[in-house]
Amino acid sequence: MTSHKNLLGTCLEGRYQLEALLGQGGMSHVYLAEDLKLKGKKWAVKECFSMEEDRTNFLEEAEMLAQLQHPQLPQLVDYFMTEAGQGFLVMDYIQGPTLQDLFEEKGRVLPVSQIVHIAFQLCHLFHYLHSFQPRPIIFRDLKPSNVMLNEHGQVRLIDFGVARHFHHEKQSDTVQMGTLGFAAPEQFLGVQTDARSDLFTLGAMLYYLFSGGQFAYLTQKPLELLCPDLPEVITSTVGLLLQEQPHNRCQSAMEVKMRLRTYSPNTTILTPNPAKNDVADQTAIPEKLIIIGSLFAGVGSTFAAISLSRLLHTLRIPNALVEHPVIEPDLYMLLYGDTQAPKGYQFSHSLVKDQQAPTSTEWTDGYSTWVPIHPDGLADTWQSADSFKLLHTIKKPIVIWDVSTHWEEASVQELCHSADEIIVVLDGSPGKCNRPRSRFLLEKFETYQKRGKRVHFVANGNLPRKVSQEWVESLPIAPLCTIPDLPRDEVRHQVWKGQFIQDQPEIVDELNRALAPLLTHIVPPAILHKEKAVNPSKSWFSKFKKHG
C-alpha cells in the first residue's frame, strides 16, 4: 500500500494535481485535486488501495457511481487504474463540513429540528438508492463522517466504498463491512444486507446525534431513557430502527419519513372552492396518507372511500381518492369518465411511467380530487417506488388510497408501512372473517398495530344486536364505527341518475353521525367541531343525464 504522504503533489493522468488530504479510512484516501486542464476546477480524488483482489470491487463502485444521477450524491466524472494496480475515482468536490465536524464544533449538541431535517433528507436519498433500477443499491456505511452539509444545510452522502447492489438470489454479501457502532448486526453475520440494514445505520446515527455522541450498542439503553425530553415519535422511531431482527424494523425509508413527519408535519392551508367562490377555513390541515381496503371481496371499500372523500368535501378539506393501479378498475366507470374526465387528464400510470408526459389536469369535484386507473387496467408492472412517485404528484393534504383486497401486494404493504391511518372494511359475515386468508390478514393488521400504526376496522351494514355481539367478539379489534345500511336499490338508482348518494343532504347527515369516530382520527377537532360544513353542491354527476 502506498503512503498518502508520497502522493501529495503527485499529478495523476497528467491532469489531476493532488493538493491536500481530505480524509482517510481503512479502504481508501481522498485527496483534493486541482484540474490542470480546466483551470481553477477542484475535484475530490479517491485512491483505492493497491490490492489486486479489490480490482473487481473498484470497478463495481465506479460503474455504480457512474449510474447515479442525484444532486445530493457524489457525481463521478472520471476513473482510472495505474500500472501499479491503484484505482482512482474522480468526483465533484463538495465544500462544507461533515456532519461529524459540525457535531464536534457544536459541543455534540444539535437542535432536534436540525437532526430531523437531516433525517428527512437521508430518507429521500435512501429511497432513491433502494428503489434504483435494475437493482437496489445498499449504502451500508452511514455515519456522521460520511454525511456532508453545504452552506444551505443540504445533505450529501459521500464514500460509496462499501455500497453494494442488492441481489435477491444471493443469501449473503461477498464482503461484510461497515463501521462498528453504526453498522447493522447482519453486516457482521455473513448474511445479505438489504434496505433495512441502511435503516438500522440511520437509527444508530440518530441515536448518536440525539444522545450527545453515545452508541446504542454500548449503552444498551432505549433513547427515551437517555433523552426523556425528546418527543415520543422520535424515540419510538429510533427504537424501531435499532431492532436486531430486520423484519421488526421500519421497512422502508419512506416509512421512517412518514413517522418523523408527525413531529414537524408539512401543512397545507386550505384554499377557496373555485366552484363556489367561498372562503375556506384557514386552519392548517396536517398531511395524511390513509390506506383503505376490504378484508374480503364485495364488502365495499370503494364505497367507503368515496363516502370519506365526500364527507371531507363537506368540511371543505381538499382530498384525493387514489385507486391503486394494481386493483380491478372501478372508479373511472363510477365517475362516467368517458364523458366527465377533464380534457388533458393523464392516468396515474402514465404520470409515473412516462417521464415526458405533460402535467396532468386535475379531475376535481369540489374539494375531492379523483385519481382513477385506466378502465382497461394496468398493462405494466407497478413498483413500490411508483406509488411514492405518484403520491409526490398529489398536492392535497389528505390522500385516501383504495387498495381493495390487495393487502399482500408488495407495493400495498410498502404503503401500509408509511400510512398514517389504515382502514379495513368488513361486514358481519362470520364465515368470511374466519377464512384462512382473512385470519392471515387479521394477524398482519395486528403486526401493523404493534409497530405503532393506527388500524381501524369499519363495518359496512348493521347487524341484529345478538349476532353483532358474537361477531364483534370474534374480531381482534371491535369495529370503530359502522357505515349505515343504505338501500342498494337506492344507491343504484342514484348512480343511474348520475349522482353520488353520498351527496344527498340526508345521507351526508347520516354518514357524518355514523363515521364521526373515524373522522376524529383524520380531521383536526377545530374543524370537525367548529367548522360549518358547506351545503353539498349538486354533483357534477347530475350532468350525466344531459349526455344521455
Automatic annotation (TrEMBL):
Can you state which reaction this protein catalyses?
A: L-threonyl-[protein] + ATP = O-phospho-L-threonyl-[protein] + ADP + H(+); L-seryl-[protein] + ATP = O-phospho-L-seryl-[protein] + ADP + H(+)
Gene3D superfamilies linked: Phosphorylase Kinase, domain 1, Transferase(Phosphotransferase) domain 1
Q: What is its EC number?
A: 2.7.11.1
Please give the superkingdom of this protein's source. Bacteria
Q: Which InterPro entries match?
A: Kinase-like_dom_sf (IPR011009), Prot_kinase_dom (IPR000719), Protein_kinase_ATP_BS (IPR017441)
- Top-level EC class: transferase
UniProt key word Membrane: no
The Protein kinase domain is annotated at 16-264
User: Where does the chain bind ATP?
Assistant: 46
**Stored Pfam families:** Pkinase
Keyword list (alphabetical) reads: ATP-binding, Kinase, Nucleotide-binding, Serine/threonine-protein kinase, Transferase
Full protein name: non-specific serine/threonine protein kinase
- Please give the organism: Paenibacillus marchantiophytorum
